[in-house]
Design a protein that fits this description.
globular, two-stranded antiparallel sheet, TIM Barrel, 183 residues, alpha/beta, 32% helix
Length: 183
Amino acid sequence: MRKGFQNISDSYSFTYDDISLLPNQISEVEHRSECDTSGEFLGIKLGMPVIGSPMNTVVGGKMAKALADLNCLGVIHRFNTTDEQIKEYADNNLTDSVYKSAAIGINKNTDIERLKRLADFGIKIICIDIANGGSRMVGVFLNSIAGIVSEYDLKVIAGNVASYETTEFLDTDECRRYTCRNR
């Protein structure tokens, strides 16, 4: 088993109703303002562990701006043109922000060019957004963009995954070089 992954169940999927977090220590915190919810993600410090989903009804330029103002990450969805993705950031004064990310698909005929244009614009975090991240096509696509990822020093998020097995697949040698460089 790889470090960082623990298979809690091979045959059962858990939901929020199945899990409770039980506080078992007496807190010394006097006020919630003393708590630090920040964390590092792919080389940037997030004020809170919040990443806006690359869905056309969730993250556009205004939401990306609102998230960036909180030091959180908004991933502009891929269901518009590359120019429109870039315009969302430009129109919302996020051109120089580190809190910007954009989604692409895995179509070699269109998404490799999209990736290059987004990287030229200064986007450093790319989300490979497909319905099933546990697909060999993801590995094939990641290998086809390896040179671009390296040249631009990009960070790559790949998904969606919903099971231990598909998460583990993205941690294989085939995918790990490009998706999990900065854990």
